[in-house]
Amino acid sequence: MVTRLLYLTRHAEQDLPEPSGPDAGEPDTGLSERGRQQAILLGERLRTRRFAAVHHGPLRRAAQTAELIAKSLPEVPVYETELAGDHLPHDTDPAGLPPAYAEFLTQFSAAERVDGPRVTADAVRRFAGPVGEGPAGGEPVRELVVTHSFLIAWLVRHALDAPERRWLGLNSHNAGLTVIRYSAAGPPSLVAVNDVAHLPPELRAPACPRTT
Ligand SMILES: O=C(O)[C@@H](CO)OP(=O)(O)O
């Protein structure tokens, strides 16, 4: 088995229009100008690493982030995958949770509570473990996944073997970097969590507010 270094980033800042009504839903918009700068800087930070692939979710904010990062990673294949999409990772029982978390969970439909955990379990099977084969010479396989806050929270929780409800409250910065190391020698280790050293202070957005 070959060690996998899984690089995870939440998409860069989204360009959000003014809310158009309580039932408008979340629009599938691309990046703001700040978001574009965040993505470019993350790409420059990753430029010296050798990646096997970049994967991104289908929504425009993730696709555009991946596209800008990939400009710094020529030769690296880029794949769109639903596994990196924005899904509720777990149908968490609100009983006993702090009221803010319980309230947060009420927004998800029955379908989202079934489909999200199923896709997320597939994502764990695909990304969260060492790989069967890799480059010669013992070099780890690096993959970058450009995704959304929920999947990063779930993979961090999974790496720590923390109770399932603890995905709540793990929030990611736009274009923040989390790196998880999976080897056959032991449990996953968190190499970096929500690292924004590549962003100047003015580009460090506050953490995703949804579950705080
Ligand atoms: O909607 C949100 O709060 C998160 C959930 O994953 O998505 P995003 O990272 O796209 O903001």
UniProtKB/TrEMBL annotation:
Keyword Ligase: no
Keywords assigned: Hydrolase, Isomerase
The keyword Isomerase is annotated on this UniProt entry: yes
Entries under Pfam families matching the protein: His_Phos_1 (PF00300)
Gene Ontology molecular functions: phosphoglycerate mutase activity
EC numbers on record: 5.4.2.12
Region entry Disordered, spans: 10-33
CDD domains: HP_PGM_like
Broad EC category: isomerase
PANTHER family assigned to the protein according to its UniProt record, in alphabetical order: PHOSPHOGLYCERATE MUTASE-RELATED, SERINE_THREONINE-PROTEIN PHOSPHATASE PGAM5, MITOCHONDRIAL
Full protein name: Phosphoglycerate mutase
Native source organism of the sequence: Micromonospora ureilytica
